[in-house]
Amino acid sequence: MLHDRLLVEPETDSAERQSTAGLVIPATAVGPKRLAWATVVAKGEHVRQVDVGDRVLFDPEDRAEVDLAGTDYVLLRERDVHGVAESDEADGSTGLYL
């Protein structure tokens, strides 16, 4: 990866979601634009705040897709990442850094 680029593997969406009230929302329901989670698999030399293995939050509309060895990846700039979820090895909790 060059410069400030990230190669991420997007998480697959489940077919149905469940609201906090317990209502089942089918996959065909159209809602507001949502951000998506992905796992960083490679990073460029100028990426400063994201490491390989981190979960990142990004806008799925602003992306460049690439197929490598039959797996779909997304190419992003570091500035296109909205948040990073890093797991704390000490206590096992997850923190979200926006």
From TrEMBL:
SMART domains cross-referenced by the UniProt entry: Cpn10
UniProt entry keywords in alphabetical sequence: Chaperone
Pfam families the UniProt entry points to: Cpn10
InterPro entries linked: Chaperonin_GroES (IPR020818), Chaperonin_GroES_sf (IPR037124), GroES-like_sf (IPR011032)
Disordered: annotated segments: 1-20
UniProt keyword annotation of Chaperone present: yes
CDD domains: cpn10
Top-rank lineage group of the source organism: Bacteria
Family: Belongs to the GroES chaperonin family.
Name under which the protein is recorded: GroES family chaperonin
